[in-house]
Amino acid sequence: MSETKTIYYGDQPVYSEVVLRSKSGRRLMDQEALLHEVPLDEYKADDSTLCWTLRNLPDWGFNVIAYSPFGMSVIGPKELYREYFKIEIMYYPVKVFSEGDDDKQLYMSEPPLIPSALVDEIETVYIPPAVRFNSSRVVLPNGISTLLHADVFHGQQYYGKGVTVAMVDSGIEEKHPYFQNHVNNINVIGYKPGQDNVGHGTGMAANLLDVAPDCDFNLFKIDPRPVNLPAKAAFDNAVNYHGVKVISNSWGLKPDPQIITLMDLSIKNAIQKGITVVFSCGNSGLPEFPGCHPDVISVGGVDPSGKVPMASNYASSGTNPSYPGRPCPDICGICGPAPRGVLIRMPTQKGSTMDDVYSNYDQTLRNDGWFVGSGTSAAAAQVAGGAALCLCKKAGLSPDVIKSILKDCATRINDAAGNPDPAHTGDGLIDLAKVFADHRLQ
Questions:
Q1: Which stretches of 48-190 are assigned E, i.e. beta strand?
Q2: Which of 7, 76, 213, 381 has its CA 20 to 30 A from that of 16?
Q3: Structural domains of the chain sorted by starting position, each given as residue range(s) with its CATH number in brackets
């Protein structure tokens, strides 16, 4: 990494997290992922601190794009970071997708110097790591819902109606003919809501909505303006959205201690509000963060394309060093094989990254608005749809109960030798027919 360090000279704004001082005096950024041992309220800022900072940061030129009881997400030009915090914005190359060109991981040249006028309110400012989207022929609509037996719910008129679901992703091309023909309830929150230049969110939304097509679906777009995509900000906005009961996340972050601390708080805040949080486990290698967080439903992948369903060799599994006692995944959705998970035909925005990159491998045309893929991204969206169906049949279920139902009712998956394979598939493939009959939904 030292050979590629470069000062960032681009014109795109920079996203960072402003960490507020807690009213208890505990320093949030000193905890190094041990937050599960301390009550959540110990890290919340005083309301006056939160309000003061929300008023003043825009006056200094920063755009506040999300906030939580612990801090706020801001974007601003690199010159503001130099002026207020006496740092340069540096970068080194990383990959957002396993295919395609390098992107940039931004970081600060040195620890930020908090101005004396702000030191009583702000603990620190932090640039999170780059987002990674976790992205051989199942056709939507109905292909996923049939494989996962969601049609049992549908046959009894449970389509997700009345359940507010959030997805944090790259956006959605809601005018795509696919959605015009099959889905009605789509709301997009974020910058330029009608665009999905990455194309990832459009496909993931189609997976979720194949399972729960009548849910109140809200996509919280990861703001594309900063060169470092602010996924945590979109997640916090989803947590704060009125009535949200399920949040679907098909992305991961490099697990450095600071982002573990910040996302740990955000996830626990969501669970405390009664929101079921679903994360993809990752593609290839060890499980990614936050997909390895103990409180989320960690989703891996089962490949149905052989004679019998087996663990996808494209899906991550095992243990992430951030949480050494937490095996992943909990359960699985449908996921194709390595190297690219080519399995599910789904919509995307014409000319998007997904449309362009996958046309090299999936026999779809470039700029046609379709791609064939999957990954644990798609699997997580499917499981989130299953959680919505649970709440549609019986409102008020807690995140822990929903997680237990989905795990207990999953179909166990064997390895090639016919032996149970929990190391790669957790409790198995989500089976919504068994979930429908579970006594906790009666």
A1: 63-68, 71-76, 89-94, 103-108, 122-126, 131-133, 138-139, 164-169, 186-189
A2: 381
A3: 2-130 (no CATH), 133-441 (3.40.50.200)
